[in-house]
Amino acid sequence: MALQINERGSCSSTARFIYDVFLSYRGEDTRYNFTELLKAIELSMISIVIFSENFASSTWCLNELVKILECKNYGQLVLPIFYKVNPSEVRKQEGKFGIALTEHEEKHNKDKVQSWKAALTKATYLAGFSYKEGAELDESAEKQSARASIGRA
Questions:
Q1: Measured between alpha carbons, how far is 134 from 138 in angstroms, rounded to an integer?
Q2: Of 72, 73, 78, which is closest to residue 24 (Cα–Cα)?
Q3: Which of 66, 72, 69, 53 has its CA nearest to residue 112?
Q4: β partners of residue 71
Q5: How many CB atoms are located within 10 Å of the residue 114 CB?
Q6: What EC number is given for this enzyme (predicted)?
Q7: Is 50 exceeded by the pLDDT of residue 6?
Q8: Cα separation of 55 and 115, whole Å?
């Protein structure tokens, strides 16, 4: 199933992908503008979300995650990678995830923060990878990528 942006700028299942993969991670130095990021998410066949210990402190990352999961409903493959964090910490919003979300509750509207919490929980139930040693992650990512390629053929 293909994914494309419709006139309103939301995901649709009736057109072509432009990008193979969208990589979502905490990286302030690599950001473009928010509109470009959302469009790139919508036009990607696969989104890889790298959850690191400071992921939830970034509203950019949280907004990207919500958009990525919206696009998943239209056939986009989403692959979470838990980089030096336990998926249960993300799911239950414990540790730095809980602290960051509590801080967001003081600055942002309640519905927005609730959507971020729901997205974090939902993402942890997707098939993905936990980073332990670089070689293990590389091998697992290669296997998953190969499976995704076979599924498209």
A1: 6
A2: 78
A3: 66
A4: none
A5: 12
A6: 3.2.2.6
A7: no
A8: 15
Catalytic residues, which ones? 64
Cβ contact 3:74 at 8 Å:
yes
Contacts of 146 (CB under 8 A, 6+ apart): none
117-136 burial: b if 16+ Cβ within 10 Å, else e: bebbebbbeeebbbbeeeee
pTM > 0.70: no
Domains of the chain: 4-152 (3.40.50.10140)
3-state SS assignment for residue 12: strand
Q: Which single residue is written with the structure tokens 């199933």?
A: 1
pLDDT one-digit tens code per residue, 45-94: 888 898 999 999 999 899 999 999 999 998 889 999 999 999 999 999 99
Please enumerate in sequence order all residues whose Cβ is within 8 A of that of 142, keeping only pairs 6 or more positions apart, or say none: none
Residue 114 pLDDT grade (very low, low, confident, very high; cuts 50, 70, 90): very high
Q: Return the SS3 of 115.
A: helix
